[in-house]
Amino acid sequence: MKKLLLLFITCLAFTANAQSKKECEELVNAEKHVADNIKMYTATWDKIFNQRDIDQVNEQNFSTDVVLLGQKENIRSKGIEGFKKSFNYYLTTFSNIKFTFIDVWGHGDKLVKHWNFKGTHTATGKSMDLSGVTLVKMKDGKIIEEQDFDDNLWYNQQLGNYLVK
């Protein structure tokens, strides 16, 4: 009976160790997955804004049916060409762009980016300093959806479109 109990306890210990090892491996793999997504994502957006390379919006980095949502979840653009057009606006409208990642974190294929955009509006010469947050969805290492949240009133006030009271 003692041998049977000892065998049972030994088997239980091996099972617990195997389960624990499996869970640990899954956690490490999940964290690596998020880290890989963040690395790809930040490198891509750094090139788009800071190196002014709109051609980074391509099938290598983005899903062909990528969606850009507005703040109220309406579709602002869809597909690589639509996405490119939406962000090329900033590259053609602002000079001296400095795009900064304040923080990026995630879970699985979802990322949250806290960012800051600075530049000079070419038509007015006015400076822009805007921060916001972007919710990102990825799949298979590609960006499939983004939704930006920023202060549109502050954006327009900096450009002189609305009077500050």
Overview of this structure, please?
43% of the residues lie in helices and 36% in strands. The longest helix is centred in the N-terminal third of the chain and has 49 residues, at 2-50. With 165 residues, the protein is α+β, with helices and mostly antiparallel strands. A six-stranded mixed β-sheet has the order 2-1-6-5-4-3. It is elongated.
Distance between the termini: 86 Å
What portion of the residues fall into strands of 2 or more residues?
A: 35-45%
Helix fraction?
40-55%
Major sheet summary line: 6 strands, mixed
Uncertain regions: pLDDT < 50 for 5+ in a row? none
Order of helices and strands: HEEHEEEEH
Strand order of the largest sheet: 2-1-6-5-4-3
Give the key terms.
165 residues, alpha+beta, elongated
